[in-house]
Automatic annotation (TrEMBL):
It comes from the Eukaryota. The lineage of its organism: Eukaryota, Haptista, Haptophyta, Prymnesiophyceae, Isochrysidales. Residues 287-326 are annotated as: Disordered. Pfam families: Aminotran_4 (PF01063). Transmembrane segments: none annotated. Belongs to the class-IV pyridoxal-phosphate-dependent aminotransferase family. It comes from Emiliania huxleyi (strain CCMP1516). This is Branched-chain amino acid aminotransferase.
Amino acid sequence: MLRRASRPLSRAASRRRLYATAPPLPEWETLGFNATPTARMIRYNWSAERGWDAGESSPEFTVTIHGLSNVLHYGQGLFEGLKAFHCKDGLVRVFNSHANAARLQSGAERLAMPVVPPELFDEAVDRCIRDNVEYVPPYGYGGAMYLRPFLFGHGEKLGLGAAPHYSFCVIASPVGAYYKGGLEPIDALVVEGFDRAAPRGVGNIKAAGNYAPDVLPSILAKEKGYPVCLYLDAATQTYEFSTSNFIGVTAEGTVVTPTSPSILPSCTKGVVLETARRLGMRVEERPVSFDEASTRSPRSTTRSRRRVVAERPHDPPCRDAEAAAA
């Protein structure tokens, strides 16, 4: 689950590798989940004639594409999220990157995009870490380097179809806790009036367009004081948080998580379930009704952008249809 990303580098040695125009280092103690400038972005380009090129490391973080690019009109774009950590032994390690590579490959196949081979995925991630290693928060500060790989189609194309060109990029940003309270439990708002994804649609891949419809419900939820939404399907089965998968624990200690072809497979959830099984806990992957979930002990939300965080039980005030459907 953890793989070595690079040779151990001292702070002094890594500083000499930075470029003269590199942004200053952040204050490690105050990191939140915000975009923090780093030194380099990694980009690979693909064309039908040559496939994937050798890639480049660039201080330029803007992307120039044609106005008729596929990603702008038909949404042919995917992204991933994973983290690298400075460990106690001085090494930088990446968490569970093979799962992110596999999920990106699944998404590319579904959206008729060129597949990023696992070895190219790891190469791009490692290059990004090496070129920005000074920005990996030091061990002991509780932070990490968040890595955002993304794949998109571009080039002049008017009709619906595959794009003439594709790019695969990785951007890094040092981050702290996703929620202000860190590992403190949070309240979630049950969304009524919106669906996260359509049955037999693309809810099971990390398509960029999946997240745009969640912006409005999330804004409305935050106005009511809830930092995250919980979506139900049409049959009122517990489905997925707006930012993460759902895991519940019964009073008997059974770990339960819902299954659906429309749920995005969480790379972090897979590790949590595997760990639970190794600890001898019973794990059930099955449909979970909202009524059943409401009676469970505090849930967990799993995703790379945050640690495993408990969700408070859904008390009646959390089921706020006005906030979710206004």
